[in-house]
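Example 4.3 (complexes with small molecules)
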Amino acid sequence: MMLSLAGKKLGVGLQVFKGNLDNETELKEFCAQCDRITYENEHLPTGALKRTLLSEDQLFPKLPILEIVRDRIQQKEFLHQLGLPLAPFVTVLSERELMAKAMSLGLPGIFKTSRLGYDGKGQLRVDRPSDLPRVWKILGEVPLVYEKQVFFQRELSLIACRNAQGQTVFYPLGENTHCGGILNHTQVPAPRWELRLQALAETYAENIFRAWAYEGVLALELFQVGDELLINEIASRVHNTGHWTLEAAETSQFENHLRAGLGFPLGNSRALGFSAMFNLIGELPDVRAIQEKLPGAAIHLYGKEARPGRKLGHLTLMAPSELLLEKQKQLLQPLLR
Ligand code: AMP
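Answer. The structure with adenosine monophosphate bound is encoded below.
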């Protein structure tokens, strides 16, 4: 929805694939109608796309990038080869090796399925060796990554964008708060924002951009540990922690993603003051009450059926100072069920 609205603004004729991803005939028909194609979810059938895309270049970010990013094992190995700092990890490809591999890294830690995980799904935290025998079955008997638990100060994210001409823009670092593995809110700039941290995160993104001759938005989820930043994961698409850019940045991540893929110059990524984006999860709050108390809140409802853990919309608060933003957050808190 948000990419479509950005496409309208740029005068781009944007079509959304509404068919069945497992139906190659439908995919082929869709690909034949498009100059370029992008995605807002990496869980796509890359084998079928390889056969149905008109060329490797039709998709942005490119198909080989999607293949690596959508698979945690490949993603971590790629980032590790680039020399970027990650939480210590091992790969677990069979039940037989699970116990020894986990014990070699140490507990506590988190098992994550290599594919199809999101919003904390496909993950299991393990504190004691006696928890280990159950892990393989619970997570569905599929390849896993086991990561050592990181005792981080906070979670940050960087939204970056590059076009084919090599122009790059970086949005200010945001601080993310998760509840039950799902992003609850993102505040930008991250409280106690420092140029040093921003520059460090940007060097990580630049490394990845160079390795891939990247086109589009790239999101980096980071753990801050002291002065260090570890990469938790990356996404080759527009990202939930960049939704604040719709109102609170000069150019939104959605517009810049399309600009990058269509060869337009990128727009300025400057933040327009201080902002906090809250996801509306599981059940919608009383939107009218929020509008009355916080008339400046930008509310986006996705028109989805309510379901526990489902993202039904988001809202962004904006203020000219961190203190005034804090006051708005306090007004909002009791209104979010
Ligand atoms: P992920 O799906 O990998 O983004 O994980 C979801 C959330 O789980 C993260 O945002 C963190 O809050 C937490 N998490 C994931 N991996 C680790 C780790 N190695 N150490 C501590 N917390 C983690």
